[in-house]
Design brief:
The protein is an all-alpha fold and about 180 residues long. The protein has one domain: Four Helix Bundle (Hemerythrin (Met), subunit A) (Up-down Bundle), CATH 1.20.120.520. Helix content is about 85%, strand content about 0%. It starts with a helix and ends with a helix.
Length: about 180
Amino acid sequence: MSTNPFEVFVEEHNHGLAALEKMEQGADSLRENGYSAEALRLIKEANEFIKTEVKAHNQKEEDALFPVLSPHMPSPSIIDVIVEEHRELWDKEEDLQGLLSSLLGDHQELWAEEDRLESLLNSPNAADNAAAIAESAYNIIYMLRDHIDKENNILFPSAQSILSEIEVAKVSELMGL
């Protein structure tokens, strides 16, 4: 693993973009073909990655990079925009998680019983839920891709040009690299 925090952040972004590809495949399938267990699996898998790995990545930025970078930034700065986008992303993720959970309701055992789950999801209400899940997934996809683009192409290059070697080393240390 690199000790350069910016390389680590970009590599983590690449993993996030791969998860978004899976989410988009699932959302496209829901939109074009309606419910399928495979489409839902793709969305759930990607969403789990976002809830864990992307959230941890965002926390690293907020705990390690932003405190070192913020003294160099005017207020409000791009850091303020990025932090606000982190909050919006988690709100949208919670919406998606709620929609995914609504398919299950209080009937978690349905996941173990595919036939029962499929019959529930193929009910008239399931189509509405599938469309809502796809829409929520697209919201996350578009927001997170735009967010990653801002960080990779604006924030990180700016930070690299502003921070001294000592400050970059401090970011690395705060990240545990």
